[in-house]
Design goal:
Helix content is 47%, strand content 7%. The chain is mainly alpha-helical and 215 residues long. The strands form three sheets. It has a two-stranded antiparallel sheet with strand order 1-2. The model is unreliable at 45-52, 54-62 and 150-154 (pLDDT under 50).
Amino acid sequence: MTTCLLCERPDETGSMLCVGCTKATEVRVQSLPALYRGLAPFLAPAGGVATARSGKGGPAPLPVNEEILDLRGPGGIVGIAERWLADVRRDRGHATATPSGGIEGRLQAAVTGLLANMSWIAVSWPNAGYFAKDIRDLVDSVRTIIAPTPAVAKGQRVGTCPAVDPSGAICGAVLHLAPGEKAIVCPWCTCSYPPYVWAQLKTWVDEDTKARDAA
């Protein structure tokens, strides 16, 4: 009897990973391409440049979320998958493969390679625990971006939309975060506020509220 290198429970099969952790790791590896694609809408607000304001009050683009950019870049999701596959191939005595093509194609190739080696990883690879934990942490990290715990209570009134149109007029429509939504979307101008800009959104809402109260 051995101990699973991920959940640390006794395993009668003598494998590096128990049956449950092996299956869970396979599912997580399979999900990587979908998670990669799922990050795309969160790179920038869907509503365009009117969702932010410059120091002078005019329209200004919101910065791209660097964390998401890194995850979708060569050293992010695809880089992690490719490095683990390279380690597996090295330890199995297989020839090293040089990644080629676009990031989505490279990620799919790495996922396919890892899944093809999962039986050996689970049964024989001493690094199986490190691999399974790294993939689990990666998937959890991406999921907190795609489906985060809302910082604003679901269904709660957030405030009024601070988006500024080209004429300089503030939208002012009431914003809510409806159940099941992953971003606050203005019902009037359709500007979208993903979770990573909620802190800035609150600042804009507070500024507009103070301006109205002082008028």
